[in-house]
Specification:
The protein folds into 4 domains: about 35 residues, no CATH class; about 45 residues; about 30 residues, no CATH class; about 90 residues, Jelly Rolls (Sandwich), CATH 2.60.120.640. The chain contains 1 helix and 20 strands. The chain starts with 9 loop residues before the first strand and ends with a strand. The strands form 5 sheets. The chain has a 6-stranded mixed beta sheet, with no helix packed on it. Strands 4-5-6-7 form a 4-stranded mixed beta sheet, with helices on one face. By secondary structure, the chain is mainly beta.
Length: about 250
């Protein structure tokens, strides 16, 4: 058998411990004088890659029984039908191929249903052009550029301190203002278009709505002060400078 020595180099290093156990380290490719001693096989090249076994769906399915019998968890192939890497999982009853997520679409990713996400308590952030566009929070909310979408019910927030400035995070929320004294509610200029929330005077103190510089408050009548306990006011950002207020004013 002909061997091309200049294209394949194998360096085997034997490391004997005091108990005469041998550890073999194998390197294939370039820089044969150095080897990463935490691996049993190291491949190094700046113009070649590792070519895995290429199987179609039928061939991969036919391999499952043998892989399960041999408890071959970690067996790796390239599936030519889904154009994706698959790794074998022998921990299930019959064994299965687990598919790495593919950017052009996924199928046959195993049972139970395909899952993407974390296994610890942290937000999942999606970026476009390295700019955060979507955050799935640990509380089950979808945050689109500080515009929070919640499932089924609104977030209810009780505010007991005097004078509150609305924030983008209040989008879609119900604010219960529970104070005994008069309370100023300030609407800032940084709310996103379409922002909406509901404000309820829960306490005895009346609420007065104020706009920051550049913000125009629009409502029927001249009053921007609530009409007593449990008065309700709805707020809608129509554009960058105009806020619509409607509800129980004096």
């Amino acid at each position: 058998m002909k061997k091309t020595i200049n294209t394949l180099f194998i360096w085997i290093s034997f490391n004997f411990t005091f108990t005469l156990n041998a550890q073999t380290l194998i390197k294939v490719g370039q820089n044969m004088g150095t080897i990463q001693n935490t691996s049993i096989l190291e491949l190094e090249s700046n113009n070649r890659g590792l070519l895995l076994p290429r199987l179609n769906n039928t061939e991969a399915t036919a391999l499952i029984t043998k892989a399960k019998t041999n408890n071959a968890s970690g067996l790796l192939i390239f599936n030519t039908d889904c154009k994706c890497l698959q790794v074998f999982d022998a921990s299930t009853t019959t064994g299965r191929w687990v598919t790495f997520w593919n950017t052009i679409g996924n199928s046959g990713t195993g049972t139970p249903s395909p899952t993407i996400g974390t296994t610890y308590n942290a937000d999942v952030i999606f970026r476009v052009n390295n700019i955060e566009r979507l955050k799935l929070t640990t509380t089950g909310e979808a945050d689109f550029n500080n515009q929070v979408v919640r499932k089924y019910s609104a977030k209810v927030q009780t505010i007991s301190t005097l004078n509150y400035t609305i924030t983008p995070n209040d989008n879609g929320s119900i604010l219960l203002i529970d104070t005994a004294e008069s309370h100023n509610l300030t609407i800032p200029a940084n709310l996103p278009s379409g922002f909406t929330c509901t404000v309820i005077q829960k306490g005895l103190g009346p609420l007065t709505f104020l706009g920051e510089a550049g913000i125009t408050l629009n409502q029927r009548g001249n009053s921007r002060t609530t009409n007593g306990q449990f008065a309700t006011v709805h707020l809608l950002q129509m554009n960058s400078s105009n806020i619509l207020l409607y509800g129980d004013f004096e």
